[in-house]
Amino acid sequence: MASLGSTRTRAFLRLLTSIGTSKTQETLKLLPFVVMAVVAFIDFASGPTAGLLPLLALGPAFASVACGLARTTAVGVIALALCVVLGVYNDILWSPRTNITMIAILGVTVASVLASAGRLRHERQLADVRSVAEAAQRVLLRPVPRRAGPEIGVAVSYTSATAEARIGGDLYEVVTTPHGVRVIVGDVQGKGLEAVETAAVVLGAFREAAHDERRLQGVVARLENALTRELSGEQFVTAVLAEINGGSTITVINCGHPPPMVLDAEGGRWFAEPPDEALPLGMGSLKAVDPVPYIVPFEPGDQVLFYTDGVIEARDGSGRFYPLATRAHLLSGDDPQGSLDALRADLLRHVGRPLGDDAAMLLLRHRAARESSSAA
User: Fold this and answer.
1) Segment 232-256 mean pLDDT
2) 277 has a pLDDT exceeding 50
3) How far apart are CA 185 and CA 33, in angstroms?
4) Three-class SS of residue 306?
5) CA dist., res. 111 & res. 216, Å (int)
6) Which of 40, 45, 99, 230 is at 20 to 30 A from 252, Cα to Cα?
């Protein structure tokens, strides 16, 4: 996974993304033949005065971009053959200009074959890297259940700022325990592999503590202890933890994280701000008191959206932040995941380019009211 952090790998992946469609690939594979055909036609029509023979070297040069070794070599041979045919046709075969052109084509062909071999080797390496990244994502951010108990619908969306890595410093998890359904959504300070490693520590500690600890405060304490052992310097993790015990409320502990957005069944929306500001996880030595849990209403038909700051801090070309509250109507669809996907698509349209920060969203929907009305 260290390769994901290299500038060379990221640049090459962006190149692969730009030419990755099969249609574009086929066009690039035909381009060398088109170029050589155009050069040959013009030279045949214009005679020796045109001086276009050196342009035949463009064939093998273009072939190195998308063709394999055999095809690149074949393009070079065809270019050399065309040079000989045109030289005979124009009666300049062994002239200095034609000889220099043939040497140039031969040199470009050799260089193109070597470049093609290097490109293919990088493609194989990147395919392996992507496989590792996908496996790491499945372990670190494993799929959440679509339902948490009989009444709670769950949907999740994750967009990594490092598209080729597919994972980053944002984290989420939903766990059904003997103490209720417990949820965490967090954001690791920093980026790159170090942030991924920290997210793995938090998720591992949460998955274990969520089952062991009777109180949500105990889960927070376990996370704090795990991060104290692992973090160095001034790193920290903002997080919001929630617990649902089957009633009409959610117990929330907010550790320096953006507050969840609540959408009630009547169409109202508001942000569940914590009554007291709490420091992020990993800053336990600076805390005077432990984070205080607070209660958020969660009646039948209500929804609660947890998100990271990559959502609300996403800017468009004019520098305007994403207006999450005014886009909440997109979450009114019948399917929670479909609704959240619509919100994510709207976020990406607002930005109009790759996100500058990871963006994670987790939606909880109290389905009892919807299901009972559908049954009726």
Assistant:
1) 87
2) yes
3) 54
4) strand
5) 63
6) 230
pLDDT band at 369 (very low <50, low <70, confident <90, very high): very low
Domain 144-375 carries which CATH code?
3.60.40.10
Return the amino acid letter for 15: L
What mean pLDDT value characterizes the chain? Answer: 81
Q: Which two tokens stand for residue 148?
A: 């948490």
Nearest to 192, CA basis, from 228, 220, 161, 226: 161
- Domains of the chain by residue range: 2-137, 144-375
User: Is 204:210 a contact under the CB 8 Å cutoff?
Assistant: no
DSSP secondary structure letters along 98-167? HHHHHHHHHHHHHHHHHHHHHHHHHHHHHHHHHHHHHHHHHHHSPPPPSBSSSSEEEEEEEE-SSTTT--
Task: Please report, as a single letter, which amino acid is at residue 123.
Answer: E
Question: Residue 224 is which amino acid?
Answer: E
Q: Specify the pLDDT at position 169.
A: 76
CA gap 185, 170 in Å, rounded: 8
Q: Which residues pair with 158 in a beta bridge?
A: 360
Strand order in the sheet with 152-159: 152-159, 359-366, 303-307, 261-263, 269-271
Express each pLDDT in 60-81 by its tens digit: 888 888 888 888 888 888 888 8
Q: Going by C-beta distance under 8 Å and a sequence separation of 6 or more, which residues neighbour residue 217? A: 253, 290, 291, 293
Q: What is the DSSP letter of 315?
A: B
